[in-house]
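Note on ligand handling. Small-molecule inputs were canonicalized before submission; formal charges were left as drawn, and no protonation-state enumeration was performed. Where a ligand contained multiple stereocentres, the stereochemistry in the source SMILES was retained. For magnesium ion, this procedure yielded the string shown in the input block below.
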Amino acid sequence: MGRSVAVVCPKGGVGKTTVAVNLAAALADKGFQCLLIGVDPQCGIVSSFGRGHYDLDFGLFDFFDSQGTPDSAIQESGIANLDFISSNIWSREEELELVNHAKANPECLRNAIESYKQRYDFIFIDCPPNLGPLTFSALIAADSYMVPLQAEELAYRALPRLFDSLAETAAKGIRTPEFLGILLNQVSTRTRLCASVIRRVREEHSDQVFQTMIPRTVRLAEVAYRGRPVSSFNPSGRAARCFEELADEILHPIIEA
Amino acid sequence: MGRSVAVVCPKGGVGKTTVAVNLAAALADKGFQCLLIGVDPQCGIVSSFGRGHYDLDFGLFDFFDSQGTPDSAIQESGIANLDFISSNIWSREEELELVNHAKANPECLRNAIESYKQRYDFIFIDCPPNLGPLTFSALIAADSYMVPLQAEELAYRALPRLFDSLAETAAKGIRTPEFLGILLNQVSTRTRLCASVIRRVREEHSDQVFQTMIPRTVRLAEVAYRGRPVSSFNPSGRAARCFEELADEILHPIIEA
Ligand SMILES: Nc1ncnc2c1ncn2[C@@H]1O[C@H](COP(=O)(O)OP(=O)(O)OP(=O)(O)O)[C@@H](O)[C@H]1O
Ligand SMILES: Nc1ncnc2c1ncn2[C@@H]1O[C@H](COP(=O)(O)OP(=O)(O)OP(=O)(O)O)[C@@H](O)[C@H]1O
Ligand SMILES: [Mg+2]
Ligand SMILES: [Mg+2]
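Structure output:
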């Protein structure tokens, strides 16, 4: 019975897509059936597997538009145990329409995900960098959520807005996902700014910050360039090992439960 | 008579806010009256000047909501010749409402900017990382636009969507802004990926890429941490000098015209 995790942060470029792709790949490498769902109009998931948005005949846009079944949107990633679905849109109008679909029918994604849970152990939902209808749709669809955070000032300042919005949603009696934690990403050990952000995040969120921190490494920037997760082209490198540790951290509470 | 420039890129974290703030500061240092308008719900402009969103009694949200005059939203930045206006929103509902205001009344920003042109030489509009109604509002309000681009694969793949959307808008007879150019940002000279992206961008966009490239430097990440542009705390450093050169590149066509 699958678990769905929304990968969310209203700040741009913190690493939502990079984390979703490589964490899903690390769990797939351990034998879990994983599905990645890209609800970001930017289609970052598609690029991360070396495909063009035009390669997808069927995607999120179509099934939000009630065409076809949720299954028709599933694509093989080329990595064992790992599939994906992406928003297959291009123009500004399509982006507007996708957002309107999500606004009009926020339950649509949740219903599809309930059906996917029969066949996948983990479902990761890659969100856009805002708190709009697509992100909201993902948050009400997911069992839990995690927040990648670039260890820099502007990303750190984005956090309160996310947590306040979730608290507000919960106060209205809407079920909100369980918080798995903040994942510090693009960590560079040599700068004081980075150390300052990490210290403040750990102080303010103590046990809700993953132990694993993902370093800034060009290997992760290369994922979209090579069209494969880092565990596929550099399995013994530091980045791949970090995502393996992160996968264990995700699995740990499940094993102990 | 002022010129307005939209700073736009549908990819998150490429440096829109960092470029808008530091370029406006570099022009302000040269004696030009500059105004920064943050239409991103994330309020990155506010954080970059060391303020909290709650410090602003009046912002974009209010004048989109037709309260007060465009002038009531103007804040002093603390830097000579440099003022700013920010979206003063917080919750998810306010974000939704701001976007709806922009959708219902896309001309609102343009009319306000026309009035600002009487007192400012340059007006920079910092856009959110998407092609939604707020970005659209900025693009139809601006005389010109520039595209900061992180020299990495996912950012590079975001470009065609932006240009296609603008071409589509122009084809409908809607006036679109003049393209000033792509600004390569977060350039690290030592990685092949970076060099590959730069090469492809220069090949595909030749004379529409700024000569100046902004390096990845912790000084720029510190702007939001210190709450001041880099020219204010490190005027002789490389980052400040790059923005000075960029300001000259912006001024050059104007001088020659
Ligand atoms: N740990 C890392 N080391 C090096 N580069 C990274 C790392 N994490 C992410 N990147 C790179 O930083 C850029 C931003 O990452 P990514 O696109 O995954 O962030 P995002 O939060 O999904 O962005 P958006 O808000 O646009 O959806 C990408 O070019 C990516 O390759
Ligand atoms: N040249 C640079 N060198 C080092 N850090 C940089 C540089 N440019 C931007 N940054 C940092 O990278 C992060 C993203 O930059 P910024 O917030 O300006 O991008 P953005 O495009 O405005 O993001 P968003 O899409 O969320 O609006 C910030 O933490 C910023 O301080
Ligand atoms: Mg992304
Ligand atoms: Mg920004």
